[in-house]
Amino acid sequence: MAGERYRDILVVDLLGGLGDLVMLLPAIHGLARGHRGAALRVVTHAPGSDLLRHDPAVTRVHVAPDGPGTAGAAVARALAEHQPDLAVTTTRYDRIPELLAASGARCVTDLWRRPPPDELVGSRYLRILYDEGLLGADALGLFPQVRLRPEERALGEETLAGLLPDPVRRPPVLLVPDAGMAVKRWPPRSWRTLAGRLGELGFPVLTVTAGPPAPVLPPGDLRHLAACFAAVARRGGAVVGGDTGPVRLAAAVGARTVALFGPTLASRYGLGVDTVREIQGLPDCPHRQPTAITEQVCWWDARCPLSPDGPACMSDIDPGQVARRILSLLEAASPAEQWRMPRRC
Q1: Domain stops at, among 141, 168, 203
Q2: 88 and 160 within one domain
Q3: 0.90 exceeded by the pTM?
Q4: What is the 3-state secondary structure (H, E, C) of the chain?
Q5: Per-residue pLDDT of the chain (345 residues; tens, 9 = 90+)
Q6: Is residue 345 in some structural domain?
Q7: Containing domain of residue 67, as a range?
């Protein structure tokens, strides 16, 4: 790798979403790989911070509390504790770039600069850091990975086994019906229809939150949820949900995943791994802004100018299409199985 080696690296991700942190994981792991022996610290929010526990690439996690002005204060505390010689941030509010620049560290403070609409966010991060001489070419192919301990995986297996029928003849499908923003939610009727069709095929259906007619995972922290996703992966099953942090987490622990995209464009916000199938609702929506999603008319309150009943892009995704995509994903993983969808799918 060309360029200087750094000994103390500070990475700041305070965008607030779990998915934002998962998209940054390849950059975190790439920096650790390219600067072996460096102390790598991360400033981020809870509960996403839990994903970095037990990650061998991360030396320390600084958890920033929620609230006005707390992001900049958390960065200032991390700088006061130890001055880095390299600082990288996805976050530009609360004077964070200025704080990092004043530390004297080499800074990369704009990982969003000039994004094309057809480059994945995580790939863009890696490309910029590579162009800055901070990553080797081998890092450009990294994808998000979350490390789990054996005892965590065992608990996930136990949780899943307690909810599945005995015997289990088909791989389980775990639904993630909720989303952090209303604009990303698939309609409840669509979830019910999907659960019913999968059940007709004999697939055990589970759900992360109540809603679809299926057993619900018991409450647990984020790492326990990741372990349940890993248990689904080990059993050859699939996870289905919208463009949300938990769905990205499922892919990051190796689960086959079907991701439903509406207001965000899959070519920009897709998960970018072979074990994922993405479905884009209303691909020609005239109001979508792939590189400025927070400026979309629907973004903050889910008021869609094309439909009085909620986001037209999410309603455009047909449950039968989702069921077929799940089946094709599972068939690709287990070619010996000869599953067939009912005609009405």
Answers
A1: 141
A2: no
A3: yes
A4: CCCCCCCEEEEEECCCCHHHHHHHHHHHHHHHHHCCCCEEEEEEECCHHHHHCCCCCCCEEEEECCCCCHHHHHHHHHHHHCCCCEEEECCCCCCHHHHHHHCCCEEECCCCCCCCCCCCHHHHHHHHHHHCCCCCHHHHHCCCCCCCCHHHHHHHHHHHHHHCCCCCCCCCEEEECCCCCHHHCCCHHHHHHHHHHHHHCCCCEEECCCCCCCCECCCCCHHHHHHHHHHHHHCCCEEEEECCHHHHHHHHCCCEEEEEECCCCHHHHCCCCCCEEEEECCCCCCCCCCCCHHHCCCCCCCCECCECCCCHHHHCCCHHHHHHHHHHHHHHHCCCCCCCCCCCC
A5: 556 889 999 999 999 899 999 999 999 999 999 999 999 999 999 999 999 989 999 999 999 998 888 999 999 999 999 999 999 999 999 999 999 999 999 999 989 888 888 899 999 999 999 999 999 999 999 999 999 999 999 999 999 999 999 888 899 999 999 998 999 999 999 999 999 999 999 999 999 999 999 999 999 999 999 999 999 999 999 999 999 999 999 999 999 999 999 999 999 999 989 999 999 999 999 999 999 999 999 999 999 999 999 999 999 999 999 999 999 999 876 544 444 444 444
A6: no
A7: 8-141
